[in-house]
């Protein structure tokens, strides 16, 4: 696309040149019109002066004497006495009522009037009244006034006046190049400053635009000079208003990148911290199985190895789930769920884990209630699996678990209760911390389940609280609005 500086300069100069051309053309047209008016007025004035000079009662000898005087004046001009070159481009004739030449200037051709008449005869319709000596197709009234007549290689602007006293004709003409030359000189002098000033103006505008774009260039240099590992917000001095949104957007992007990297670092640190011990235990069990001479000991080591693999698998799955539910890292696919049907189907998949431990898992809900809710199916399945899975792990064998679903006009409430040992009040506030584990007796907990549940509840705009269950253990209560609202992180 080229540089902003070049594009701006080309655009501004193009608009300026177009405007100047339009203004110059308008000025040229107005000047041409005014000059035409001025010269036409001079032609009319000259004709009337001649009308007053040539007396109708003038004797032939007096007219001859006046013509000789005009010829002598013309000879003086040809002798390079003081005068003007345009004199030869101005002519006049005085004709009698029969179109005979009475008086004329040296620059006038003998057939000036005849050519005028023939030109008009070719263009005008037949008329009734005819001038003496004119073709029958040209009316006298049409001869009077201004006309453009081609004579030899030039066009002449002619003014014709008829003396009403004796019906004589006065013809005053002027070559059109006199006017054109004057108009051209006026136009040239008016355009010359523009032609000379436009390149100078382009240089000045180039410098001015460069100075205006200097803050943008400085910002680009600052960004280019930054270390790739430096994700701190840009700190730039005074900025033009146009650059402030750009800097704000860049700083917001840097913050998001920084948060993303911090999340990845935290995930790697959590994974390294939590996987170190399980992997070491797995190695010990595998080594014991290899070294055990007794088949019973070898079988026990292999069973411990399987349990360790299961625990590591669960830990990795929870770490990935927690990372996926981090702020700005998840986009929920919200849909309308019938939570009653959904929970029943999910519990059908989880109940074998409870039966394996001889536990009783029940689901309590009013069959006639309205349990529709706006929620993300996948993340809500993770929530339910973690809550019920934790309850199964922390409940002794042959214990009881109860999942209760209650409905209200604008919200739903989910209770997951167990008959386990419960949690002291002092510890309930810390159960949502990552990697905080209680004593399950199985060693399978990773301390991430409630952290995952809390994040899912937050994404759905709900709340989660811990209390004491009627069964004697822990009661986890989740309140969810029916309509999904945008999370504070800006996600849906």
Automatic annotation (TrEMBL):
<dbReference type="InterPro" id="IPR005467">
    <property type="entry name" value="His_kinase_dom"/>
</dbReference>
<keyword id="KW-0808">Transferase</keyword>
<dbReference type="InterPro" id="IPR036890">
    <property type="entry name" value="HATPase_C_sf"/>
</dbReference>
<keyword id="KW-0472">Membrane</keyword>
<keyword id="KW-0902">Two-component regulatory system</keyword>
<dbReference type="Pfam" id="PF02518">
    <property type="entry name" value="HATPase_c"/>
</dbReference>
<dbReference type="InterPro" id="IPR013727">
    <property type="entry name" value="2CSK_N"/>
</dbReference>
<dbReference type="GO" id="GO:0016301">
    <property type="term" value="F:kinase activity"/>
</dbReference>
<keyword id="KW-0812">Transmembrane</keyword>
<keyword id="KW-1133">Transmembrane helix</keyword>
<protein>
    <recommendedName>
        <fullName>histidine kinase</fullName>
        <ecNumber>2.7.13.3</ecNumber>
    </recommendedName>
</protein>
<feature type="domain" description="Histidine kinase">
    <location>
        <begin position="270"/>
        <end position="484"/>
    </location>
</feature>
<keyword id="KW-0418">Kinase</keyword>
<feature type="domain" description="HAMP">
    <location>
        <begin position="210"/>
        <end position="262"/>
    </location>
</feature>
<dbReference type="Pfam" id="PF08521">
    <property type="entry name" value="2CSK_N"/>
</dbReference>
<keyword id="KW-0597">Phosphoprotein</keyword>
<keyword id="KW-0067">ATP-binding</keyword>
<dbReference type="Pfam" id="PF00512">
    <property type="entry name" value="HisKA"/>
</dbReference>
<dbReference type="InterPro" id="IPR003660">
    <property type="entry name" value="HAMP_dom"/>
</dbReference>
<keyword id="KW-0547">Nucleotide-binding</keyword>
<dbReference type="InterPro" id="IPR050428">
    <property type="entry name" value="TCS_sensor_his_kinase"/>
</dbReference>
<dbReference type="InterPro" id="IPR004358">
    <property type="entry name" value="Sig_transdc_His_kin-like_C"/>
</dbReference>
<dbReference type="InterPro" id="IPR003594">
    <property type="entry name" value="HATPase_dom"/>
</dbReference>
<dbReference type="InterPro" id="IPR003661">
    <property type="entry name" value="HisK_dim/P_dom"/>
</dbReference>
<dbReference type="InterPro" id="IPR036097">
    <property type="entry name" value="HisK_dim/P_sf"/>
</dbReference>
């Amino acid at each position: 696309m080229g540089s902003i500086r070049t594009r701006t300069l080309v655009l501004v100069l193009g608009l300026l040149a177009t405007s100047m051309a339009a203004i110059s053309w308008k000025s040229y047209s107005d000047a041409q019109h005014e000059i035409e008016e001025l010269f036409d007025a001079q032609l009319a004035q000259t004709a009337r002066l001649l009308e007053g000079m040539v007396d109708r009662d003038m004797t032939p000898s007096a007219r001859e004497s006046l013509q000789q005087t005009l010829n002598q004046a013309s000879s003086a001009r040809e002798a390079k006495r003081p005068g003007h070159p345009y004199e030869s481009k101005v002519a006049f004739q005085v004709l009698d009522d029969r179109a005979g030449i009475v008086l004329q200037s040296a620059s006038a051709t003998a057939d000036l009037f005849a050519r005028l008449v023939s030109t008009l005869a070719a263009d005008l319709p037949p008329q009734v009244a005819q001038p003496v000596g004119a073709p029958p197709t040209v009316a006298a009234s049409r001869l009077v006034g201004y006309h453009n007549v081609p004579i030899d290689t030039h066009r002449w602007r002619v003014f014709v006046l008829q003396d009403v006293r004796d019906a004589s004709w006065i013809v005053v003409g002027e070559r059109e190049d006199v006017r054109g030359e004057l108009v051209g000189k006026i136009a040239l002098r008016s355009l010359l400053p523009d032609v000379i000033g436009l390149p100078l103006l382009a240089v000045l505008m180039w410098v001015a635009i460069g100075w205006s774009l200097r803050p943008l260039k400085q910002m680009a240099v600052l960004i280019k000079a930054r270390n790739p590992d430096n994700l701190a917000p840009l700190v730039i001095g005074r900025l033009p208003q146009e650059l402030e949104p750009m800097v704000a957007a860049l700083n917001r992007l840097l913050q998001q990148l920084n948060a993303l990297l911090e999340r990845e670092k935290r995930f790697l640190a959590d994974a390294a911290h939590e996987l170190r011990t399980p992997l070491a235990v797995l190695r010990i069990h595998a080594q014991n199985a290899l070294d055990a001479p007794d088949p019973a000991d070898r079988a026990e080591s292999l069973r411990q190895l399987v349990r360790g693999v299961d625990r590591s698998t669960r830990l990795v799955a929870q770490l990935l789930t927690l990372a996926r539910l981090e702020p700005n890292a998840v986009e929920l696919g919200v849909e309308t769920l019938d939570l009653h049907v959904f929970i029943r189907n999910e519990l059908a998949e989880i109940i074998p884990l409870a039966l394996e431990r001889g536990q009783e898992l029940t689901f309590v809900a009013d069959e006639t209630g309205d349990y529709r809710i706006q929620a993300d199916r996948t993340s809500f399945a993770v929530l339910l699996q973690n809550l019920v899975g934790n309850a199964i792990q922390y409940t002794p064998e042959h214990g009881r678990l109860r999942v209760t679903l209650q409905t209200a006009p604008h919200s739903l409430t989910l209770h997951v209760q167990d008959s386990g040992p419960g949690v002291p009040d002092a510890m309930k506030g810390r159960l949502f911390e990552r990697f905080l584990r209680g004593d399950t007796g199985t060693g399978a907990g990773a301390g991430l389940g409630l952290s995952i549940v809390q994040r899912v509840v937050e994404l759905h705009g709900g709340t989660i609280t811990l209390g004491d269950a009627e069964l004697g253990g822990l009661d986890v209560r989740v309140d969810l609005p029916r309509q999904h609202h945008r999370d504070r992180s800006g996600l849906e």
